[in-house]
Write a structure and sequence with these properties.
By secondary structure, the protein is mainly α. The termini are far apart.
């Protein structure tokens, strides 16, 4: 790849990355404002109780292997496959751990509702693990346009579903 081509690709990538960050955050903010008007503070509190478990699990799943793939010069399909299946195995393992410990989490917070919420919300760990290698591939290819469009589409679709379910009275499940 020529230096001019790389410079152009990098500039376009930075612009799409900015679009991803600003449009995605603006869309998410708009959805959150609407949801805040439709939901109770206690609904946010329930999700907040589980946020630490989900966030820590997400860190273990990614484990920095995506960045390692980006930095590695001679990547092979075996590298991608290994990291994909590692991420998936860790995600399934953490999901099972959270599934089993959900009643204990609910008991700790003295909120029986958290058992089912933990078990359902933790499924996002497995789903998200499926996309980590693909996101890394797009980053390596400097294809930030595809990442931005997918991200914006995901925010809009999930936002529409969340607002609809909140409006229909599903409460905390609109946040899930």
């Amino acid at each position: 790849m020529s230096e001019q081509s790389l410079k152009t690709k990098t500039t376009i990538g930075l612009l799409w990355n900015a679009v991803d960050k600003f449009a995605g955050k603006a869309s998410a903010l708009a959805v959150e404002v609407l949801l805040a008007r439709l939901l109770m503070p206690s609904d946010y509190g329930l999700i907040g109780m589980l946020a630490i478990f989900i966030a820590l699990s997400g860190l273990f799943i990614e484990s920095g292997f995506g960045m390692a793939l980006i930095q590695k010069h001679n990547r092979t399909e075996l590298d991608y496959s290994t990291i994909f299946f590692f991420n998936l195995a860790v995600a399934v393992g953490l999901y099972l751990l959270l599934f089993i410990t959900a009643p204990f989490i609910a008991r700790f917070f003295n909120t029986p509702q958290l058992t089912l919420l933990t078990r359902v919300l933790s499924l996002t760990l497995v789903v998200n693990s499926l996309s980590l290698v693909q996101q890394t591939r797009l980053s390596i290819a400097l294809d930030f346009k595809t990442q931005a469009l997918v991200s914006l589409f995901a925010v809009l679709i999930s936002g529409i579903i969340a607002i609809y379910t909140a409006y229909r009275g599903f409460g905390v499940w609109a946040l899930v």
